[in-house]
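quick one before i forget lol
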Amino acid sequence: MNNEDKKERFTLWMKHSTFEKVEENYREDDCQKKSEFIENAVNFYCGYLKMNSSEPFLSTVLRETLKKLIKASDDRISRLLFKIAVELAITMNVVAANQCVDKQVLNSLRGECIKEVKKTNGIFTFDEADNWQKGL
């Protein structure tokens, strides 16, 4: 251990309310001692100051990575929800028609349902399907 990493003992003065915060939280941070918690807090705050920003302390790389992950997840969920809405529109129309539908009609219906789901933003009720089937 070099001299820079050697721990030093010194007197620390702080407000009673600040010391109570240390008492309440040092175990939650998996610290064995209060001094370890205070050292972590000082290191965190020094890192925050080096960011030279008033934004919450979080590295730019981590922030951008999280944004990309969330966007990819949102895109995937949006595509899946759109596909589910289309299939649901097909199901409602088949039931509303109360008849057997051959493959060609089903493919045509799928195209029409895609247009309808796009037009209604995925909000397509059974009543709308029934009216559509009746030509209303």
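fyi DSSP finds five helices and no strands in the chain.
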